[in-house]
Each structure stands twice: as C-alpha cells, then as structure tokens.
Write a structure and sequence with these properties.
Number of strands of chain A: 0
Strand content of chain A: under 5%
Order of helices and strands of chain A: HHHHHHHHHHHHHHHHHHHHHH
Distance between the termini of chain B: 50 Å
Helix content of chain B: 55-70%
Oligomer: heterodimer
Structural class of chain B: mainly alpha
Structural class of chain A: mainly alpha
Number of helices of chain B: 1
Strand content of chain B: under 5%
C-alpha cells in the first residue's frame, strides 16, 4: 500500500457514490435504444458542450492523471508542447472532415473511404484501426489497474475485471449516447478534481514559499520548460515536433480514429459537431498545462517535505525484505541530501533579485544533483534485487501525494477522477470497436454477399454482441499484459507508426480527387513499410512518424497515379 | 431541452458570431497566446 493503511469510509462513499451516480444517470438518460443507429450515433441528438467534453474525456485516460503529473515532476513541463498541434487539427477537422462526413451520412470514418475509393481501402484501414484500438483499449484497462490495485489493495485481475465489466454494462445497454453523457459528467469530475488538487498543492507549500518562489525553484531545477525553440529531430518534445508532428498526430487521431469520430458524428447538427471540436481546441492546451503545473508544484512540495526514497512503495518493500541494510543506508543518505537541497532552496529564495542569485542557483542545482544521485541508486538497487521490476516511479508520485497529503474526502474524489478517466477512455474504445466491426465488416460483408437487410433489432444485437466480444478481448489482453516488458511504451509508439499512413489515406481522399483506389493502396503499404524501417533504423522521435507516414502516402499515390492508365472518376469521387 | 425537427444544413453558421472563420481565428489566436505565455514563463523562471 502507498500512504494510508486503508481508505477512510468517507473516501469510499465519495468514490463509489460518484462512479455509481454517473453510470446510473447515463444509463437512465439513454434508455429506449431501438436500432443500430441509436447505438452508433445516439440518434444524433447531442449538443456541443456534451460533444466537446466527451471528446476531451475520450482522450483523457487514467494515465493522463497518473503519469502526466509524475512526468512533470521528473522531466518538467516540456510535454505540454505535444498538444500544440491540437488546436490547428481541430480547425482543419471542423472545416474539412466534418462537412464531408455529414454530407455522405456515414456512420464510421472508414465508410467514407468506400464512398471515395472502394471496399478494399475501407476494409484495410478499418482492420488497422481494429488491431490498434483493440490493443490500446486493453492497455487503457491494464495500466491504471496496476496502480489502483496496489492503492486499493485489490488483486490485479479483480481490478481489471471490475473496471472492464462496469464499463461494458453501460456501454452495451446505452450505446454511444450513454458513453457521451457519462463522459460529460466524468469530465466535470475530472476538471473539478484537477482544480482542487492544484489549489491544495499550492496551499501545502511551506510558509514563506510563495507561488512565484515555487515557480522560480522549479525553473532553477529545470522543471519550468514549457517551450523550447531548439530544432532537433531526436528531441521528443519541442515546439516544432509539437506543432508539426503533433498536428499530424492529432489530425489523424481526431479525424480518422472511430473512437473520436463517433463522438462528433453523434451531434444534432454539423454546427454542434464543429463547436464541440473547437471547444476541445480551446481548452485542451490549458488543461494539459494545469495538469503538468500541478505535477511541478508537487515537485516543489517535495523539495520542502521529505519524499520516500522511491515512490513505488510496494516494490521498495519487496526489496527491503532481502536488502534491509542497503535500503536503510539509502534512507540515511537521502535524509542528508534532502536536508541540503531544502537548505539550498531556502537560500536561493532569499537571494532572488540579489547579486548572489546565480551563486545560490548553482548551489541549489548541485544539491539537487546529489539528491537525484540517491534516487538513481535506489533504482539501481531495485533492478539488482528484482530484475523484472519496473524501476521508474513517476506514475506513483501524484497518487502518493494525494493519499498522504490530501484531506479525507478529497482522496475519494481524486480516485474517482482516475477511475472516471479510465472508464471514459475504455468506453469510447469499446463502442468504436463494436460499431466498426458491425458497420464496416458485418453489415458490409452481408451486403456484399447479397443478403437482404435484417431487422433493426437484429443489427442492434449484433452491435452489442460485437462490443461485448471486444470487451472480452481487451480484458483478456489486459489480464496477460504483464507478461510483456515495456508494453505500454511499445503500444504508444505502434500507434504513431500506424496513424501516419492512415491519415495519408484520408488526406488523399479529401484533397487529391484524381487519385484512385489502387494508387492509394500502394501508397499506404509503401508508407507503412517506410515508417517501420525508420522505427528500426533511425533515432527520429516518434511524433515525426505521423507527418512522414502521411507525406509518404501522398507522394507514392501521386507517382503511381501519374504512371497508371487514366480511369474515369466516379460521381461519388467528384462529390 | 427542446429537440429540433430535423438535421441542420451542412453550411449552417455558428450559433454565435456570423462566420466559422472567426471562431477558427479565435482558436488559433488562443494557441498563439498560449505559446507566448509559455515562452515568457520559461524565460522568467529559468
């Protein structure tokens, strides 16, 4: 366990009450589903605030609230640049993608590809989506379950199944309307919890440390770095990779990933869908900034309040069982290093604006280096004692702070935030997988075989069964995910590997009207091969894969089209 | 909430302001403001 021996009963009331109220209300509001269209688009009745919050909730998984503050604690605020391309992507999707989807009355993004090209392209891209999203949804269940199971004291498998089953019940029974409505309230809980956490951490700074002073300490120790203009292809986060690479990644995710497309296609009009997307474009960057800033303030808090030697206390306890003397020695060294760093920080605050400021800053950095050295030694000890264990502890930083330093009641609220985030992302993934399987494969293949249309209830039941099947696959994958090393990072990078070529297909479809199906198929396959080669043979940061993959599809498609015999363009293509 | 009788036209203007391009400039302008604030913060804190 981290922190308290057990949650207070008031925290359990807040946690269970919040989750139950949201799920029951969402289920009640979405009752009476009668057709697959209700399941897919919620009868297209949603207003823009619901769409906007639902879009934000889909992207905000539990990892957003578990890992992001920890990332800022460890690496500073530069990760915010990852989102700088998002507002521009929202503008392009709002102006170009949404009108096309509405004009063709498609239910999935991949249905559009058949209108524009042919069934082969639709099935290829739909299959890529199913594989990628199915894998990612399993991870979306697994990643927070590891940490929540340790915090709540539940077995890992029970946590995975509990989270998965709650989500699948309201997703299957209420369809996309239930998902969107629950996500709206989940997002309100998330934002409330986020603001409360940010305020509490600032209030918990010691007397004499102002907000400005805390920011200066964070800056001196390399945590206040939200913008870097250095152009370096190997650097994962700078303004260029964020605006350019991030733009293509976000364009692909929001414009072509059915888990997001379904959110805004359930709007009651084009205007509502567009406004929902622009709402996301306005508030996403400030929200991520606030999450990261909270993590930086947690870092400053631990400059003045002694942190554990390693934030992953359960793992450290396992190490201590057989290496008690080494852990005790680390503890003593950390105690001394902490005292020196704290004293240096106080001297630095006193020297701000004086001629001694640079000297004091240098002393603070030197003390911080000695403190970090002890932390690295703790990681090395974990690796030596438990070679298979994860040595990074950044995912545990924020939860440790919440459990140990937030008042009773707020702990339950923050745990509800994390569970809400996990459930909202899983729900979007599951329903998108179920809908794509039904619309792009089952109904399309049925049509291709010349079968007559089945009843609305039959198609609805197929959608629900497909969603349940994907839930079983995702939960099953989450249950065995611990067998694979570094799986989470691998899946994130795999997502970027596939997103570029998929986006390229859509860009060709939307903007290069003379390109036909075969050239784009060849372009997609060639681009995919190129990105795989770059992944294995270069050090280019993964955000650039999206832009390069997209550009490769366009270039190869144009070349193949140019050398191909001319073919007539269909009326649908022209539209 | 009252429900409309049918789907809206594709080119329906936004419910506030008169053109979509104005909203796009708002989103782009806020992004530029974000970058400016982040840059000033980076310079001031470092």
């Amino acid at each position: 366990m981290t922190g308290r021996a057990a949650l207070a009963w008031q925290d359990w009331v807040v946690l269970i009450g919040t989750i139950a109220a949201i799920v029951l209300y969402g289920g009640w509001r979405s009752r009476g589903m009668r057709s697959v269209d209700s399941f897919v688009r919620g009868d297209a009745q949603l207003r823009w605030p619901t769409i906007g919050l639902s879009i934000m909730a889909t992207q905000a998984s539990a990892i957003t609230f578990l890992s992001t503050p920890g990332q800022a604690f460890d690496d500073g605020m530069r990760f915010v640049q990852f989102y700088l391309g998002l507002p521009l992507a929202m503008i392009v999707i709002s102006a170009v993608f949404v009108p096309v989807y509405y004009r063709l009355k498609v239910r999935t993004a991949y249905e559009y590809l058949e209108h524009r090209f042919d069934a082969r392209v639709r099935l290829l891209v739909g299959a890529l989506f199913l594989v990628g999203r199915g894998l990612a949804t399993g991870i979306t269940i697994y990643a927070p379950s590891i940490i929540l199971s340790q915090i709540l004291g539940w077995p890992l498998q029970a946590t995975i199944w509990a989270m998965g089953l709650v989500v699948v019940v309201y997703t299957v029974l209420g369809g996309t309307r239930a998902v969107s409505i629950t996500q709206t309230h989940q997002m309100v809980v998330m934002l409330t919890g986020l603001f409360v956490a940010a305020i509490v951490v600032v209030l918990r700074l010691p007397d004499g440390v102002s907000l400005g002073g805390a920011v200066k300490i964070a800056g001196a120790l390399g945590r206040m770095n939200p913008i870097s203009f250095d152009f370096d292809l190997d650097s994962r986060y700078n303004i260029w990779s964020g605006v350019i690479g991030g733009f293509f990644l976000q364009l692909s995710y929001f414009g072509t990933d059915q888990s997001q497309v379904q959110r805004y296609l359930s709007g009651r009009s084009v205007a509502e869908s567009r406004l929902g997307l622009l709402f996301n474009g306005l508030f996403k960057v400030p929200m991520q900034f606030l999450i990261l800033f909270t993590g930086v303030m947690v870092f400053v808090f631990y400059v003045f309040s002694r942190p554990p030697v390693h934030f992953d206390r359960p793992t450290m306890a396992r190490v201590e069982a057989n290496h008690g003397a080494e852990v005790a020695a680390l503890d003593a060294r950390q105690d001394q290093a902490f005292g020196e760093r704290r004293a240096a920080a106080i001297v630095y605050l006193g020297a701000l604006g004086s001629p001694d400021e640079d000297t004091a800053r240098g002393a603070l950095r030197a003390a911080a280096d000695r403190f970090d050295h002890v932390h690295n030694d703790a990681k090395a000890l974990i690796h030596q004692a438990l070679p298979a264990a994860e040595t990074r502890d950044t995912d545990f930083v924020f939860l440790s702070f919440v459990l140990e330093h937030l008042p009773i009641g707020l702990v339950g609220l923050l745990l509800a935030v994390i569970l809400c985030a996990a459930m909202s992302a899983v729900a979007s993934g599951l329903i998108a997988l179920g809908v794509t399987t039904t619309v792009d494969f089952y109904l399309r293949i049925r049509q291709g075989l010349g079968r007559p249309p089945a009843s609305a209830i039959h198609d609805l039941r197929v959608s629900q069964a497909a969603t349940i099947a994907w839930a079983a696959i995702a939960i099953g994958f989450a249950s065995v995910a611990s067998l694979f090393a570094n799986l989470i990072e691998a899946v994130n990078i795999l997502g970027s590997i596939f997103y570029g070529p998929i986006l390229g297909v859509f860009v060709v479809a939307l903007f290069l009207r003379r390109v036909t199906a075969l050239p784009v198929l060849i372009g997609a396959i060639a681009a995919q091969a190129l990105i795989v080669v770059l992944f294995f043979a270069s050090h280019i940061a993964f955000l650039w894969y999206n832009a390069l993959g997209c550009a490769a599809v366009i270039a190869v498609s144009l070349v193949v089209q140019a050398v191909s015999p001319a073919r007539p363009v269909t009326p649908q293509v022209a539209s | 909430m009252s429900e409309p009788s049918g789907p809206s036209p594709i080119d329906q203007p936004p419910p506030f302001w008169s053109r979509w391009s104005q909203l796009y400039w708002l989103v782009g302008g806020l992004l530029a403001a974000d970058v400016l604030v982040f840059w000033l913060l980076t310079r001031w804190a470092s």
